[in-house]
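README: folding subset

This subset contains proteins for which both the sequence and a predicted structure token string are available. Records are stored as plain text. Below is the entry for Synaptonemal complex protein 2 armadillo-repeat-like domain-containing protein (173 residues), shown exactly as it appears on disk.
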Amino acid sequence: MNVKRFKPEAARSSGGACSSAQPQVRMNGQMCVKMENCLTRGDSSDLVSVLRSEGLSSITLTRLDQLVTKDLCGLGFSRVLVVLKSLEVLSENRDDLKMLVNHGLAVKVLLWFEAVHDLLISDLQKNSAPLLILTEEFYDYLLAIRTFNSILESLSREQRRLIQNDQNQFQIL
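--- output ---
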């Protein structure tokens, strides 16, 4: 899998990821407006409703990725928090989680975290409270994954195989 690392400072100066480095996706204009409105209002439950009503497709996730990348470039950390909270709510539903994972959510979240990390270590954003709050949210998300992986590592091969075949594996996640 070929994954480009997002560099916020390079993107801002060169017009890279902040302008159009990602492939542009044509989408329902009304959906884009609804998503933007939810982010502007800070309403994660409305964003969940919009995402579910439009369908959790790769196009929808790509558009969400574009919005997050744009917000990270523009230092819109509170808007990214809304997206993370929405994804947390969506992940509570087994089918939604499965769809999101299949469409590459894990890779996108990791790239978002790398962008936040790069901003955090830059001199310009060292003492940004909103950035620290966003970083904590990412750490919570990644810590949950780490905890799950630690549990899996402590199991025997047979127990791991049973979990893979278990109908409730997404409830564990």
